Please model this.
Amino acid sequence: MNGNERLSASIRHWIASNRCRMTDLLSELIRYDTVNRVVDGTERECQLALHAKLLELGMEAELYSPEEVSGFREHPAYYPGKDYRDRPNVSAAWKGAGGGRSLLFSSHIDTAAVAPGWTTDPHAPYIEGNKLYGLGSYDMKGGLVASAMAVRCLMELGVTLRGDVRIESVVDEEFGGANGTVAGRARGDHADAVIIPEPTNLALYPATRGGALWRVTFQGTTGLSFNGETVRNPASDAARFIVYLEQHEKERARQSGPAPWYSDSKETLPIIVTRLEAGDLDSPLCDVGPVECHVDIWVECYPGIDEDGLREELLTGYERFCGGSCEQGLARPAFARMIRFLPGSSVDPDFPLLPILAREIEASTGRPAEVTGSPFACDAFVFNEYSPSKALILGPSGGNAHAPGEFVDLDSLDTLVEIYARAIINWCGLSSDDRILAVEQEERA
Model:
């Protein structure tokens, strides 16, 4: 058995012996309510607990408020209207001996809202079989814990790296937040490469989709035409628009995305009607049509599409579907942004971390790595479009993200810790393995 094989065997042995530590830490983080409330949030207590754990691990760790970062509000990716009082980020570093490449694991601590339908307390984690249930277990406290456990593993095995490893836990990612990630970049927390542990089912994503959440409003007139008044019901116009959106989603599904990461995509680019609103909701009865009808929609797009282009795509298709134009009397939808536009982003195929992670995925799972564009949008664009640090996405398996019964697969977390630990070594470089050999000799004894 050569040195690499011995080290890999030691990593696997450590992971098998420390699953309880991993599940305990993940369960502790799930117990904190870190739901993103769009404008504000309650991440502080969970971040304090994580900060203490990273200090206990032996990393250099600190808490900081995004509002205290010089240049935060002036950053080109900053999005206004949020409250960051008592919402600190966590930044931690394991310093290397020097001469190696640095690696940053960037996770978000906030979760989506508690969806209707939970039959258990979403903040009371429990384990059934190989699944750990709880809000945020899959998206994305599980991946955050895996990155911390990978560092703990290498530290306890006595590994000395040449390059630095950083772990950050940011606030306000859900619902198009991204300002927590922006604060880290404005602060200067950069690295030679970034891994975002969003849930990927152990696939490797070098690209992410973009998306927009709009409120689309149709105007009309109301009343009863006793004297021949013209009445236009905006709900009928909105219904026509919704039928068009359903057809447009199907049309887009027949088209391939941009090469190389989406050219063979079999996934549908979602267009989701998330809410409808019309009429006087405070009135006990309505006997006339509404004056306005609002249709909230989430629309995803591929990298390379901006917000104006995506809106124009919808408007042009809508006119074609209806066989007329807004200038000719077709009801004109008004688009209002509800969150920031999330641009899609990607890294080049020759990005050097790609083959390292693909190789480690194959070594740890026994199957070729799935390397493709992600089926979701996230804050990777902040790295790929606004910083020198390029980001790849690799996280655990699980299910029910943003839904009742969210869970993470614990076997996949074990595998992810192994992938991360081996990738850290191969990316950052080993400085010395003397103590590793001593630990192995003690284990054999």
User: Anything to note?
Assistant: The radius of gyration is 25 Å.
